[in-house]
Here is the input.
Amino acid sequence: MDLILWRHADAEDGIPDDARKLTAKGEKQARQIGQWLKSHLPKGTRILVSPAKRAHQTASALGLEFEITRQVGTGASVKSVMEAAGWPNAQGAVIVVGHQPTLGRIAATLLSGIEAEWSIKKSEVWWFSNRLHNDETQTILRAVMSQEFL
Here is the structure.
């Protein structure tokens, strides 16, 4: 299984939080990362998106259908996101377009085994794979991509 964490792009300040839109900078970030992702995604990738407007706009940059679910929304827990994605046993790839601090906590948990406050920058992608090797389950960090490197 592949689990791809994609933090929403740069967004306006404001209330209510779920109504915040991407800034012009955020739209550019989402387009650039979306193009990179689309060129690397396996066919049939499932896309789970937070109900927040900024997350919808970020995911829309892929030009693919996505599923909106509160399980990956603002304030989601590591457990709810992992359950929604089906980690580590689902087949294929799943993208989660969500928020800090949850995505950083997931990255920390996958790489260190301990939930910690790690930072994932706006519109950054962290791509993990899970595999069985010599009868042992392994988590592999395949890529970290930031808009500034595209």
About this structure: The chain has four helices and six strands. The radius of gyration is 14 Å. The first helix runs from residue 24 to 40. The chain has a mean pLDDT of 96.
